[in-house]
Amino acid sequence: MLTRNNQISSLAINTLNKNILVSASAGAGKTKLLIDRLIKRITVDKIPVNKILALTFTEAAAFEMKDRLRTEIKKILLEADDAFLQNQLSLIETASISTIHSFCLSIVKDYSYVLNLNPKLVNNLLDEAIKKSYLDLCLDQTILAAIDENHQDFVLTVETLCNRAHQFDPLKKVLTTIMNIRSGKVDPDAWDAQVLQFYDPIDTLKDLPEPLLTIVKEALDVDIQQMQHVLNQIIDRYTLILEADIEPWHELQKLLILIEKLIEHAEFDRVYSLLKTAGTIKTKTLKDEDEYKELRLVFNDLLKENVEFYIPEPLFVEDIGRQQPIVRQLLRLTDDLMVRYHNMKTDQLVMDFDDMEKYALAILTAPDFDVARVYQATFEDVLVDEFQDTSDIQHEIIKCVSRHDNVFRVGDVKQSIYQFRNAKPQLMRDLIEQKDDNMVLVLPNNFRSVDEIVRANNHLFEQLMNIDTFEDVYLDDDHVAIGLDEQKSKGFPVELDIIDYEREADQDYDETNTMVYEESNQEALIKTRHIANRIVELNKQGYKFKDMCVLVRTHSIKSHLRTVFDDVNIPYFIDTKSGFFMSQPIQDVLSFLKVLNDSHDDISFMGLMMSPFFQLNFDALASEAIANKEARLTYYEHFKQAYPLIIDQIENLKRNIKKETLAQILQRLYQVNDYYRLHCDEQAKINLDYLLEKAHAIDAQGNHSIMYFLDVVANIQDEVSSEAIAVSSDADVVKVMTIHQSKGLQFKVVFFYSNSRNHIVDLREKVIVDPELGLGMHTLLLPLRLQRSNIIRKAIEFNMIKQELQEQIRLLYVALTRARERLICVSITNKEDLREPMNQYTIYKRKGNGHWLNLLFVQSHVPFLKYQIVSPTHAIAVVDQKKHMKDDRVLEPLMKKPKAKARPVTYVPSLQLTPYVSPTEFGTLIHKILELLIDNHLSFNKAVMDLMVDENMQSQIQQWLQHPMTQPLKAMTLLSEYPCITYYEDQYQQIYIDLLAQSETQNIIVDFKSDRVADEKELVARYQAQLDRYKHTLNVLYPQHETIAYIYSLHLNQYIQV
Question: Which of 269, 392, 754, 1034 could form a disulfide with 313 if both were Cys (CB 3.0 to 4.6 A apart)?
Fold first, then answer.
């Protein structure tokens, strides 16, 4: 089974004096192979570790590489003493085994004098949030300078892009986008020249330069093929029914074939004429044929779009000339912006993340120095991991520090998923084609997944990747077979659960929207509940929670999973900074900082007073607002008299922080009234830790004010992490992560959360920017501001859609290759046609990977794929690891946030400002006491006694405990705040049962009410519907149990059966 794999591996490890590229599918062991070569070169060939450069994509991979090397050397030294290896062991920590960014930083630090860089600049890395502040300032300066110059091209550009005078946000957005792409180019000026060349004056569209002309023809041809696909379905299915009325369709078919040929020869004026003709052909309608009606409608819409796009060729040519000055102006403004930004960083003695690579390349290519030759002479081997995610600049750096025959690269084009970081998979494709200059090896085996998963992925991606117009392909070499006996069939086919859900009409749905991967909240809830239900089932079958991982496309889906997992007590680890500003603790801390910066900021001050820092209730604040009505003081001034203790504490803080850094200020705030420890769940702590990281980063740039910090924080955006989430492998929790976070990892069971919508490019943007083709914008006819598309815009839209679709397929490949034993995909169907073939037409419809999986599973009759169409999950049994009240077990590790509806009152602040407890607070507090009592199996302890605020409350609790109907409950299993979600009266509803007492045959519900009422009828009238929901839910979950529900009135001291 492994003979061929071993031969290829041996060749890869032992071949010298030759550039080697190992292309290997997921799970084939390509990184292991790279590490094996590294170990062999040091331990066998006796190459010193400081003579080898090994570049990885993540810090974690670099650490693993060093750790493996260290372990192997120690094993050898246990058997025999070797002075050379003993010396290598001491050199590993400082070896050039690192991420490419770390390597670039070392070049810049060692050779900063080549570029005359200030050493302080080299050691100060600009925080991303501060970078945003710098860029905003530079953008303003760039635009103000252009306004002063008042060049006619700038005036035209503003009129084209900005709808309102002096509203420059659209222009700023375009300049930022161009800058980001330009920054990733080895030679930005050459890129500018190419972009401008596309807008040079021409006589006909045939004169368009390459590669633009090729993409133009490809884009237009795909549109025609989309129409042909629909037309062919009509002819195949309805020729007999339509009889003579099929002729117009045949006429249209002939026209489309001719149009395809004309596009191939760039005869665009004739295409325009023939499309106009096609638009005049009338086709027959059919009654009672809904499918024909739908196909005819789709065809007519496609035809209409094409007819409306095409204009006479001279107008297309004229549009190109009309846009040239705008493109030139945008490139000039971007260049000015980048110069200003560079100068600002130089003045502030900082560099940003991109500068590390750009400075390193500039040093290596500096004409008056020979730094590159130094590295070429130093390194015997240059090893590159994850080559498919290399950028242009990184590729040039690797070429500079290597010789022509000593680069060992491993990668897989199918796993290139970092396009947003300038990754360029075409670099690897090109090297594979250049076999004369490189030894290209392909690993044939998978060592990760069971046979069903391996065969399933071969089958799925042979169809998904071999799409016309795509560069990605799935060829014979990409088909892998299992490599180990333990991977043989376990009897579990790859599963697709298709949830049959009729999506409501979405009034906000817009085909031109951009990068929207999420469904509606209802759809997300349906999918997450189904996944939770499957997790519970697998857990009951013996799988541990830590065996399971849920993969999602974006961070935003994690919040839905967190909510559902909380409801059914599934332990989890979810690492995300999404919703950073929605985090209440972040808002609390920012309010505190604003008050320290400006005490008379009334809104921030009142927010701070109501926060857990000081815990004033709404009634108290309302009273102070009334008292301050006549005086009209700021609330801070008013509180000096009303609550002097609070003001004294804030004033003390102001005095103490005067000489402190921003990080020290935050750490001090986190300790106020023990805020961080007592009032923050895991996610809140992650966000607050992240805020502290930002403060440390800003402190490293020099002394800055609180106001500056607040401005910087306002620029923090949600981040996409390529690193795996930090959680112990021993923690028995379900891991939820994005596909990017899962790269390089594997799990026993993987749930894949598919997406139902897949919009790629924001077609509403006035300017779109493509890394290869440059700038595309709509033609705007001034002064009427009439807008139409044009040939360059069309080509760039198409190319961006094509590249993004390929990346989405590669992301799907990464997701589906993480599983070792079980792979379960979850999708939604909305009465879609599951007979559609998987081809170019289907892919370019951009319906999302859920739609792709639906088609492939339903149409594939193979034993390793299994699908089932299921109804939405109505109720989920809470997992056995829920908090059990008999022995008061606590889940470990505890990763879940407290329930928002009843936050535990575990701390009474030192600034207890009023003894008044509102009715709502009384109800919350007494429910908390009852929960603690149930936890302690109806026995008092110190925690309970500490929460008693008066004798009345204590009396009511005692009366309940002594009630005759309470006594029998002690013999049963008692569960407090029992969570459930149920499908009731045509909607999902979340409930918490105050007390659930269980025996082998009976469920007793007790719902505590503190309402002051005259008699029991009033309570029944108020809460009958609520208790009915509770009973319905338990009857679904426990159909064999008898369910009895009671209201217990604390005011009446009475059990009331409902």
Answer: 269
- What CATH superfamily is the domain 1-123+352-443? P-loop containing nucleotide triphosphate hydrolases (3.40.50.300)
Q: How far apart are CA 755 and CA 556, in angstroms?
A: 12
Distance CA 619, CA 608 (A): 15
Q: Which residue matches tokens 């800058």?
A: 179
Q: What angle do CA 714, 176, 848 make, to 5 degrees?
A: 85
Residue type, 1004: I
Mean pLDDT confidence for 157-178: 90
The string of DSSP codes covering 340-403 is HHHHHHHHHT-B-HHHHHHHHHHHHT-TT--HHHHHHHH-SEEEESSGGG--HHHHHHHHHHS-
Beta strands 987-998 and 1054-1057 are unpaired
Same fold, 1-123+352-443 and 494-503+518-575+729-870: yes
The domain 494-503+518-575+729-870 is placed in CATH, from the list 3.40.50.300, 3.10.105.10, 3.40.50.11690, 3.40.50.970, at 3.40.50.300
Characterize the bridge pairing of strands 987-998 and 973-984.
Answer: antiparallel
Please tell me the distance from the alpha carbon of residue 229 to that of residue 925, in angstroms, as a whole number. Answer: 66
Mean pLDDT (whole number) for 163-185: 90
Domain 583-718 has CATH 3.30.1380.10: no
Structural contact between residues 471 and 806, judged by C-beta atoms closer than 8 angstroms: yes
The amino acid at 310:
Y
Secondary structure letter of residue 209 according to DSSP: P
Whether CATH 3.90.320.10 fits 919-1057: yes
Q: What is the pLDDT of residues 636-684, one digit of tens each?
A: 888 988 888 899 999 999 988 988 899 899 999 998 888 888 888 766 7
Residue 852 CA, chain-centre distance (Å), reads 20
Q: Give yes or no for a contact between 418 and 390, defined as CB atoms under 8 angstroms apart.
A: no
Domain boundaries, the chain: 1-123+352-443, 128-203+317-348, 494-503+518-575+729-870, 583-718, 919-1057
Tell me the whole-structure pTM to 2 decimals.
Answer: 0.76
Tell me, what amino acid is at 240?
L
The residue assigned the tokens 């929790």 is 733
Spatial distance between the Cα atoms of 270 and 19, rounded to a whole number of angstroms: 50
Confidence of residue 704 (pLDDT cuts 50, 70, 90): confident
Cβ atoms of 412 and 26 closer than 8 Å: yes
Per-residue pLDDT at 577: 52
Query: How does DSSP assign 290-318, residue by residue?
Result: HHHHHHHHHHHHHHHHHHHH---HHHHHH
Residues 6+ apart with CB under 8 A from 416: 388, 389, 423, 425, 428, 807, 810
Q: What is the dihedral of CA 985, 990, 992, 996, to 10 degrees?
A: 50
Confidence of residue 895 (pLDDT cuts 50, 70, 90): very low
Assign 497 to helix, strand or coil: strand
The band of 865, judged by pLDDT with boundaries at 50, 70 and 90, is: very high
Give the separation between CA 801 and CA 762, rounded to whole angstroms: 10
Of 39-48, 428-437, 466-475, where does mean pLDDT reach its minimum? 428-437
Residue 391: which residues within 8 A CB-CB, separation 6 or more? 184, 357, 421, 422, 423, 424
The answer to whether 739 and 517 have CB atoms below 8 angstroms apart is: no
Cα of first residue to Cα of last residue in the chain, in angstroms, is: 68
Please state whether beta strands 734-738 and 774-777 pair in parallel, antiparallel, or not at all (unpaired).
unpaired
Cβ pair 178, 770 in contact under 8 A: no
| Token pair 């659960």: residue | 497
- What gap in Å lies between CA 153 and CA 329, rounded to an integer? 6
Query: Which pLDDT does position 193 carry in this prediction?
Result: 96
Q: Give the alpha-carbon dihedral of 445, 447, 451, 455, to 10 degrees.
A: -50
